[in-house]
Design goal:
1 helix; elongated; Immunoglobulin-like; 5-stranded antiparallel beta sheet; mainly beta; 177 residues; 2 domains; 10% helix
């Protein structure tokens, strides 16, 4: 699953279709006008811009678990899902690591999960953050961990890292089976 925020493409998943249609219109106009292929010296596009960055608002809610981690196996790409609430989007430092997976082997301490020396967090490919509700009273999110580990002897948890001096928030613990 791919969610397009519009940050790296003009029209999200429809960019290729849009550009193809526009170039088709240009080509048809050239053929109808009898143009022999001469190009105009300048071509410009007018595109409107809009910022989707959230307006500044401060949630006074404590972070709370809405739904403990659940394994979603009956999907095209299985994943662990965890739902929580409590932060306004403007309170989240989106450019920094914010969500990570931690593991605990036996009696050892909790540690960030690394795969091939790479942390499993929202800066990589396996973690998705989805805003489910955006009203001032109840801002809920879902975190999805794709390609999860399946070691049944290991405990895992989602960790919501420090955001503007808030303590780390931990999900309920789950196993790799």
């Amino acid at each position: 699953m791919q969610y397009y925020e519009g940050g790296h493409t003009i029209y999200g998943p429809n960019t290729r279709k849009y550009l193809s249609e526009m170039h088709g219109i240009l080509l048809n106009n050239m053929i109808r006008s009898g143009s022999d292929g001469d190009l105009t010296p300048n071509v410009s596009y007018k595109m409107n811009a809009h910022s989707f960055y959230p307006k500044i608002s401060i949630s006074q809610l404590r972070l709370q678990e809405c739904l403990s981690p659940v394994y979603q196996a009956n999907t095209k790409q299985p994943y662990w899902s965890f739902q929580w609430k409590g932060l306004s989007p403007s309170q989240i430092q989106w450019h920094q690591s914010f969500i990570r997976i931690a593991r605990k082997l036996g009696s050892s301490d909790w540690e960030p999960l690394l795969i091939n020396s790479i942390p499993v967090d929202d800066q990589g490919y396996d973690i998705a953050i989805i805003m489910l509700d955006n009203n001032s009273a109840d801002i809920r999110y879902e975190i999805r961990w794709y390609h999860p580990q399946t070691n049944v002897d290991t405990l895992y948890r989602f960790e919501i890292l420090d955001s503007k001096n808030m303590p780390i928030f931990y999900s309920s613990v789950f196993t790799g089976n």
